[in-house]
Amino acid sequence: MHELSIAISIIEGATEEARRHGDVKVNAVRLKLGALSGVSKDALLFSYALACEGTALEGSRLDIEEIPVMAFCPRCEIERAPASIQWLSCPVCGAPTPQVAQGKEIEIAALEIIE
Question: Architecture of domain 3-69+101-114 in CATH?
Answer without folding.
Answer: 2-Layer Sandwich (3.30)
